[in-house]
Backbone:
């Protein structure tokens, strides 16, 4: 699995973090791909921090949501300057793919 198992070892580097603070603590780094697999309530509490981790043009993948929670999560992340690219529903669970606008600067 991972980037090595898919032939991407030289192209991809990853940072695993429990919560937003540890990833953000890396010199204010912004990332080209941010993924979170967590329920809507804690995801909502972390929304400003997650949005700050997203570099301009970043893909943000949010999963672990119930289908019924998706609309509220999209609304919250839109307020942080992200737009919905697509959603995927499987067996009652929803995954959202969002993007941060390329020229957008966040506080």
Residues:
């Amino acid at each position: 699995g991972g980037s090595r198992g898919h032939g991407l070892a030289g192209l991809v580097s990853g940072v695993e973090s429990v919560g937003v603070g540890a990833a953000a603590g890396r010199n204010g780094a912004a990332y080209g791909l941010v993924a979170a697999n967590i329920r809507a309530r804690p995801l909502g509490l972390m929304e400003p921090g997650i949005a700050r981790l997203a570099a301009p043009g970043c893909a943000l993948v949010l999963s672990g949501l119930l289908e019924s929670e998706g609309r509220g999560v999209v609304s919250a992340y839109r307020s942080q300057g992200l737009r919905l690219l697509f959603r995927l529903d499987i067996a009652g669970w929803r995954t959202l793919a969002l993007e941060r606008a390329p020229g957008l600067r966040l506080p």
The radius of gyration is 14 Å.
